[in-house]
Amino acid sequence: MKWALFIGMVVGGAVGNGPVPMAFSEEPTAVLSPKPVTVYEVRGVFKGFDAKTRQATISHEKIPGYMEAMTMSFEVRDDAELSGVKAGDAVEFRLCVKADDAWIDHVRKTGFGEAPLLVPAKTAGPGRELNVGDRLPDIALVNERGELIRLESFRGEVLAITFIYTACPLPTYCLRMSRNFKVAQELLGQLAPGRGWHFLSISFDAQRDRPEILAAYAKAYQADSKLWTFASASEAAVHAVGDGIGLEFKRTEGRIDHNLRTVVIDGQGRIRCILRGNSWTPQELAAQMHSALRGR
User: Fold this and answer.
1) Cα 151 to Cα 127: distance, rounded to the nearest angstrom
2) What fold does the segment set 122-293 form as a domain?
3) Cβ atoms within 10 A of the Cβ of 212, count?
4) Which of 15, 63, 160, 240 is most buried, judged by most C-beta within 10 A?
5) What is the pTM of this model?
């Protein structure tokens, strides 16, 4: 009964949404401490809007001092912002960034058609779509200590995997995934202190995210190396494991366009659940992993 009550409290926890108007810093407070709102004026081409997640997808131009040109999804807090805007329209908008959140507003339609310097929408890679109960393919990884490991190395543990790169500046993307893993690590430390679970953050930017960079990033998030591994993999390896769960990423002229996928694997290497986007909470992730630990 105590466990049921505790899990109920965990699952019912507050939803965490967050941003940071900067790339990764080795100083933990630079990543995690509150910052005032920073506003950027941005131009782009509107791709579409998901009313369920309140995410607008826009191919935007370079944001000087903050982000390269890429295709991203942004939170829209007021549907009226998109009144009269349809896919293919050229738009101008404000990107508002706080330490743990980001959204757009003041969306203005300025024309039609694709601007030549904007990034085309990423298409899904080849391969079979994976579902709950399927196994992820084994891939080679290099961890934050420079050791060659394999995904199969974690067999026997309940494993949560997410995909990031340390230079990602938008707080609602990779930074939120890392913050969520940090909180979920703390929650599981209370729910299941006897181990049997692990977190794995895989970088798809192996060119930059060398072991020493990943080690500093892990330190910033207070990752327990016995419970949370940071690793990089080749683009081919990330595609091999990511395409089947809907992960999309593409390197274009030094920048990386990507979406978000997090997956929970049981001790037998089978997919327990796939968490899409950034709306899931650390409480939900911890509850999924704890349930898998208990064989439910």
Assistant:
1) 19
2) Glutaredoxin (3.40.30)
3) 12
4) 160
5) 0.71
Counting every residue written for the chain, the total comes to: 296
What CA–CA distance (Å, rounded) separates 228 from 184? 11
Alpha-carbon distance of 91 to 127, in angstroms, equals 34
Query: 110-146 as b/e, with b when 16 or more CB fall inside 10 Å?
Result: eeeeeeeebbeeeeebeeeebeeeeebeebebbbbee
Q: Which residue has the tokens 């390197």?
A: 251
pLDDT of 197-256, one tens digit each?
999 999 999 999 999 999 999 999 999 999 999 999 999 999 999 999 999 888 766 668
* 129 secondary structure, DSSP code: P
Name the pLDDT band for 264 (thresholds 50, 70, 90).
very high
Question: From start to end of the chain, where are the E strands?
Answer: 38-50, 55-60, 70-75, 89-97, 102-112, 140-143, 148-150, 158-164, 197-203, 228-232, 249-252, 255-258, 261-265, 271-276
Q: Which fold has domain 30-112?
A: OB fold (Dihydrolipoamide Acetyltransferase, E2P) (2.40.50)
Exposure pattern of 223-233 as b/e (b: 16+ CB <10 Å)? beeeebbbbbb
> Which are the contacts of 264, defined by CB distance < 8 A and separation ≥ 6?
158, 159, 160, 161, 271, 272, 273, 275, 285, 288, 289, 292
Sign, Cα dihedral of 88, 170, 204, 24? positive
Structure tokens at 50: 């998901």
Q: 26, 25, 58, 61: which is closest to 43 by C-alpha?
A: 61
Q: Given pLDDT bands bounded at 50, 70 and 90, which one contains residue 168? A: confident
Domain boundaries, the chain: 30-112, 122-293
Output the DSSP codes for 156-187: TSEEEEEEE-TT---TTTHHHHHHHHHHHHHH
Helix (H, G, I), strand (E, B) or coil at 144: coil
